[in-house]
Specification:
302 residues; alpha/beta; 39% helix
């Protein structure tokens, strides 16, 4: 008869996966490297699988180890939540620095907000990083606690993560306040005569044009000029005779920040965007992360 698994062994397996190495896991668990190694040997015998193999200075989990992680981590999180209960309150540990990976538009928005309103971060420091184009990399960074908050397109379901919708929006046309030909509104015929500066989304495959602005007459408006830098786009639109499409929910902030204006049009634009905030499940009671997520959600509802 196989012996029951020690809960501490499950915790060690999860910590090695999160930390990426035996030495880092030992530091996080406040134990010795030898104690972690002994635990991994017990796990190997219990599951009849090596579970990890060395890669450089770290440990790479096997497929079985990752499957066990998906089962162990939620269970451990429940035990940790129960351990934190003090009367009616949960007391999350303070965060000294929040690390956020996000798309360029939210990068610009959040840095502006953090500098204008430091209270949003409760006095903590922050790093705002470029988001990876690979969803597996994004998930792994959250699992390993290398990133505290991931804001971008939806990620595949993962038991170790929690996801919150923060923005679902149609698109609004924006141009310079001094644009000589575009007044308050434009027709489709007028619009076709203008230069549209388009944004290259991070999920787009290299070398492939994805025409995403479509109208009711099924005419595709191809974007001849495009850039992957939102700063480049907004600065150029502010200074030249160009048009850009921005998420409608963020258009007021964009116009105020870059001295631009919105343009009405007599043709529908079907394109929409949807973005989500993702955190590690163990951080679900982190007041700082929830504060940032709530701020973005409120923008999305405005």
């Amino acid at each position: 008869m196989q012996t029951k698994l020690d809960l501490n062994l499950a915790r060690i397996l999860c910590e090695v996966i999160d930390a990426g190495s035996v030495s880092a896991a030992a530091i996080n668990l406040k134990t010795s490297i030898s104690a972690v190694s002994i635990a991994l040997n017990k796990l190997r015998k219990h599951h009849n699988n090596t579970l990890f193999f060395r890669q450089g200075n770290g440990m790479m989990p096997t497929a079985l180890a990752l499957e066990l992680y998906k089962l162990y981590r939620p269970a451990l999180n429940l035990f940790d939540d129960a351990d934190k209960l003090q009367g009616d309150d949960l007391i999350p540990s303070p965060m000294q620095k929040v690390r956020i990976a996000t798309i360029p538009l939210f990068d610009l928005l959040l840095v502006d907000k953090f500098l204008d309103s430091p209270e949003l971060c409760n006095g903590s420091g922050w790093d705002v990083l470029s988001i990876s184009q690979d969803p597996d990399v994004r998930i792994e960074r959250l699992r390993r606690k290398q990133i505290d908050l991931d804001i971008g397109s939806a990620l595949p379901n993962d038991r170790s993560l929690l996801s919150y919708p923060v923005l679902h929006s149609g698109m609004t046309m924006i141009c310079s306040k001094q644009h000589p030909r575009i007044k308050k509104s434009v027709t489709l015929e007028q619009f076709r005569q203008e230069s549209l500066l388009g944004y290259i989304y991070s999920e787009e495959k290299l070398g492939v044009e994805i025409p995403s602005i479509q109208h009711n007459d099924e005419t595709l408006l191809f974007r001849k000029f495009r850039s992957s830098s939102i700063i480049t786009i907004l600065l150029q639109v502010a200074k030249r005779e160009l048009i850009v499409m921005m998420p409608s929910k963020l258009a007021p902030w964009v116009c105020e920040r870059f001295d631009l204006r919105t343009v009405e049009h007599n043709f529908p634009v079907k394109h929409t965007v949807a973005y989500y905030a993702h955190i590690h499940r163990s951080e679900k009671n982190n007041a700082l992360l929830q504060k940032i997520v709530n701020y973005l959600s409120e923008l999305g509802r405005s």
